[in-house]
Design goal:
Layout (H helix, E strand, L loop, with lengths): L22 E8 L2 H7 L8 H17 L3 E7 L2 E6 L10 H23 L11 E8 L2 H30 L5 H8 L4 H12 L8 H5 L1 E8 L38 E7 L6 H5 L8
Antiparallel strand pairs: 1-3, 1-4, 2-3, 2-5, 5-6
The site of guanosine-5'-triphosphate has 16 residues, from strand 1, helix 1 and helix 2.
Length: 281
């Protein structure tokens, strides 16, 4: 069908494919959440309700896109790992990035009243997003290790910082000065001796972040059945004449999955060795 004389402008829309055979990590991050958290009185240093809301939005994204196998969240950010061989939207960068960021944002807003029922939104929250490609499984592991190490560093600092302010009566300027140049062990010691806080007693959600893992439910063994409905796909055995009737018919095995929420270590080998499917094809 011939287009209008204006249709040539479509040619200015350039393809933006993401390199095949690479791992895709998409990260969304709250826009100006320093202000959003202040304006909506988030608890310091961690607001359980706000973090659960982030988890909910991430779960909604994973329910929409089954090729996301893993997500990691802390503070106002969430990272999503796609199956290496994903062909979602033909790996078009803008389509994937904008749709995921949009679903995450709308879910965050839509579900806000469930988690913060007494805090009406004063203005619309928003998130930025980016996609980074990683060539190897090692890079992917290091990416998630980087984010979890960041969670730990930030949480340790914020926990002792707000203890100094809220329990120790220091101003925020004084608390920053108190902590300047301190190493991790000094912060642990300060928290315990001055405020009786044993860091390891703090909720693992705050110390480790939120990990959402897609787990596969093993399919029930099924007897050979004749194709009876549209759900069943016919598979022609290799080498068979494609014009002849297929000799074998197999059920189109639909793998059912569920999403597990964890707050555990993912820097060590144990997490990945127990879930080899995360870094497979
Ligand atoms: N009180 C409180 N604040 C939080 C919590 N989670 C996130 N925040 C705030 O959100 C900020 C997130 O950091 P950034 O993403 O670097 O800051 P930002 O203001 O969102 O800036 P941009 O991402 O560059 O737009 C933190 O610095 C906190 O101020 C929380 O659980 N409690
Ligand atoms: Mg932010």
């Amino acid at each position: 069908m011939a287009g209008s004389k204006f249709a040539y402008v479509k040619n200015f829309e350039l393809p933006d494919p993401l390199l095949p055979g690479t791992f895709m990590v998409l990260r969304v991050d709250g826009h100006a959440f320093h202000r959003l958290s202040e304006e909506h009185n988030f608890t310091k240093p961690n607001d359980e309700r706000a973090l659960q809301l982030m988890d909910h939005a991430a779960r909604d994204v994973m329910n929409e896109f089954k090729d996301i196998v893993l997500a990691f969240g802390e503070s106002d950010e969430f990272s999503f790992l796609f199956r290496k061989s994903t062909t979602l939207y033909n790996r078009r960068q803008a389509k994937i990035l904008t749709t995921v960021t949009s679903i995450f944002t709308s879910s965050y807003v839509y579900n806000w009243p469930k988690y913060l029922p007494n805090t009406p939104l004063k203005y619309p929250p928003s998130f930025d997003g980016r996609i980074v490609l990683y060539p190897s499984a090692k890079d992917v592991r290091n990416y998630f290790s980087w984010r979890q190490a960041d969670t730990h560093i930030n949480n340790l600092y914020n926990t002792v910082f707000w203890a100094l302010v809220l329990q120790g009566g220091e101003t925020t300027t004084q608390a920053h000065a108190t902590l300047r140049g301190t190493v991790s062990s000094t912060k642990h010691e300060m928290m315990f001796s001055r405020f009786g806080i044993n860091y390891t007693d703090i909720s693992p959600r705050y110390r480790k972040g939120s990990i959402l893992v897609r787990m596969e439910i093993p399919p029930e063994p099924e007897a050979d059945v004749e194709p009876a409905s549209g759900k069943i796909s016919e598979v022609i055995e290799s080498g068979a004449d494609p014009t002849s009737k297929p000799k074998t018919a197999k059920k189109n095995v639909k793998i059912r999955t569920f999403i597990e929420l964890l707050h555990c270590d993912l820097i060590g080998d144990e997490f990945w060795e127990a879930r080899p499917h995360l870094l497979s094809e």
